[in-house]
Design goal:
Length: about 170
Amino acid sequence: VLDLARMESGKDIFNLSETDFRPALKKLCQDFGTLVSLEEVRFTCDLEEGAYPIRAEVFHLENAVNNLLDNAKKYSDDPVISLRATRENGYLVIRIQDNGRGISPEDQKRIFQKYFRVGEGDLHNVKGYGLGLSYVKKVIDAMKGKISLQSKLGQGTLISIQIPLTHG
Ligand SMILES: Nc1ncnc2c1ncn2[C@@H]1O[C@H](COP(=O)(O)OP(=O)(O)O)[C@@H](O)[C@H]1O
Ligand SMILES: [Mg+2]
């Protein structure tokens, strides 16, 4: 939350530097795997071989991916979650798929807005501030990346982030 405030003051913004994101992503997957290993969560991580050279602020990008994994877990009753990373057409593509409650087409238009949470029935048994995805979008925008969403109510959600590769 502090970081979000800092970003919005427009002062700081990001310190992008060239980095191979694969080792960081691998570590993140291991840590998330450890975190959920005591819960009824099935998690797989599949990272295409080779380097992932991008211009990023690793701290924020890791936070963003962790936010997406956290959502995948929070909004799924019997979570089966996968993270896949590939290089496609000059982009690093990271896809996070879950089998959770999904997001309706109307709500899909709004979930990247600050404070927006799907508010129906018992949904707010799940705690949150509605800030995660607006933060994720800011981080991806700062890296000239793209974020896209495919989701079906009751079936699950696939979020893809694409970050330009600096070479290769
Ligand atoms: N993987 C997902 N599956 C279903 N709904 C989701 C998923 N990710 C996000 N959402 C919906 O989008 C809203 C906004 O997400 P987010 O910004 O991360 O806020 P928070 O998780 O704090 O509520 C969530 O409250 C939830 O309703
Ligand atoms: Mg969240």
